[in-house]
Recover the amino acids of this structure.
């Protein structure tokens, strides 16, 4: 059986990822391909419990290394329980965030550096890496304003804007360094204009 595709979607919360992911699912389904949607942190019963710890605004004393390891633990469970089995069954997996989020949020945002992120996550992902990553590019100020209008900010979203700017610059650098995998999409546009670009990219890889 042919292995399925693994597509990840990255960007600041409020960049329009969720809307586009649902539209991507429908578009790929219409091609006769089974699609599995998941998210990080979360996606399994165990990983969702880890998510609640990571994002709880009351956990203000969480050490940076604790945060990194919790994300990696959630990721390892998701890979083992959902992502790898689906890919091996020939399904297309679309994940709202994956390892690139750790690179930018812990590596750049927390200043931990790329090397430690790679070391910790090498075991967690166990060789499972995305075939394609879509980075929805929008300024952190606009994205966070959109996001916090919908609900109160979580622990990560409550960080100072300097942190979010470091994360954004991290995304830009990752995209620049990995043009063969990461495609940047301008999210400062309407839903349909963005979706049209996404469909072109999907057609090129599936």
């Amino acid at each position: 059986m042919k292995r399925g595709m693994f597509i990840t979607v990255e960007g600041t919360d409020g960049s329009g990822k969720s809307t586009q992911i649902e539209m991507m699912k429908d578009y790929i389904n219409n091609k006769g391909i089974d699609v599995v949607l998941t998210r990080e942190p979360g996606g399994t019963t165990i990983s969702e419990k880890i998510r609640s710890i990571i994002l709880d605004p009351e956990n203000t004393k969480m050490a940076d290394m604790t945060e990194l390891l919790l994300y990696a633990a959630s990721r390892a469970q998701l890979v083992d329980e959902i992502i790898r089995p689906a890919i091996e069954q020939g399904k297309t997996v679309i994940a709202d965030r994956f390892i690139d989020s750790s690179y930018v949020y812990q590596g750049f945002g927390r200043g931990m550096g790329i090397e430690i992120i790679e070391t910790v996550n090498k075991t967690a992902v166990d060789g499972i890496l995305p075939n394609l990553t879509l980075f929805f590019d929008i300024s952190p100020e606009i994205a966070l304003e959109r996001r916090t209008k919908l609900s109160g900010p979580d622990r990560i979203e409550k960080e100072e804007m300097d942190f979010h700017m470091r994360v954004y610059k991290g995304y830009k650098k990752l995209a620049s360094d990995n043009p063969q995998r990461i495609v940047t999409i301008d999210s400062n546009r309407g839903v349909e204009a963005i979706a049209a670009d996404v469909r072109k990219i999907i057609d090129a890889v599936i």
Notes: The helical segments are 17-29, 45-55, 64-88, 99-109, 114-125, 140-150, 161-177, 191-205. The first strand starts at residue 6 and ends at 10. The mean pLDDT is 95.
